[in-house]
Specification:
By secondary structure, the protein is of the alpha/beta class. A 4-stranded parallel sheet has the order 1-3-5-6. Strands 2-4 form a two-stranded parallel ribbon. The protein contains 3 helices and 6 strands, in the order E-E-H-E-E-H-E-H-E.
Length: 111
């Protein structure tokens, strides 16, 4: 897990709903499409308000990250809520994403 990643200047911020579940993914996918069309340097997914997340949303996050990376666009998870951090750790996905979180000194490399 990489923490405290600098956010590039041309960043598209995506703020998912509090309950990140399958029905919400179409709107988020549209925002990823916009990032690709506008050639954003990065996509920041603000997870600070996340209260729940399902397996479809985790799969979407992995697919979106791969899709963006294929076009040279970095995806960063911003301020994940405690629930989100717990889910990422429980599913062993915390190492797959770049994460920017407050209160952490320096940048930690992927473990």
């Amino acid at each position: 897990m990489v923490r405290n990643v600098e956010t590039p200047k041309r960043t598209l911020v995506i703020t998912p709903p509090q309950n990140l579940v399958q029905p919400a993914l179409a709107a988020l996918e549209h925002q990823v499409d916009q990032a690709l069309l506008t050639r954003a340097e990065a996509v920041a997914v603000d997870l600070s308000g996340l209260q729940s997340i399902d397996s479809a949303a985790l799969n979407w996050m992995l697919a979106a990250q791969n899709r963006l990376a294929g076009q040279g666009i970095q995806m960063v998870l911003v301020e994940p809520s405690p629930v989100c951090v717990d889910v990422l750790i429980a599913t062993r996905l915390e190492h797959r994403f770049k994460i920017r979180a407050a209160g952490l000194g320096g940048e930690a490399p992927n473990a």
